Amino acid sequence: MLTALLWWLIVGLIAGALAGMVMRGGGFGIVGDIVVGIVGAIIGGFLAGLLGFGSSNIIVSILIAFIGACILIAILRAVSGGGRFRRTR
User: Fold this and answer.
1) Residue 78 CB burial class (10 angstroms; 0-12, 13-18, ≥19)
2) Which of 3, 12, 53, 82 matches a 20 to 30 Å C-alpha distance to 61?
3) Distance, CA of 72 to CA of 83 (rounded, Å)
4) Interior CA angle at 80 toward 74 and 83, to 5°?
5) Which ranges of the chain does DSSP label H, i.e. alpha helix?
6) Which letter, b or e, does each residue of 47-67 get, where b requires 16 or more Cβ atoms within 10 Å of its Cβ?
7) How many Å from the N-terminal Cα to the C-terminal Cα in the chain?
């Protein structure tokens, strides 16, 4: 149980950090990257299941979580109007 939780955190951190970099953001901090990565893993796992993909390979798991995290970031930015707050002069 503890080992599985540790793997979820590691996969979430890696996937969230990569997604934060690729999606032109500076990341969300270590906790934010883990959360984005874990939620991305859930989204990616759901979509991969619908498409018939699945693997116990750690690299494939990170890739699926990364894709899900990118989708999550894109949705969050679309809902929030572009991401970070902008100053107006």
Assistant:
1) exposed
2) 82
3) 12
4) 65
5) 2-22, 29-51, 58-80
6) ebeeeeeeeeeeeebbbbbbb
7) 52
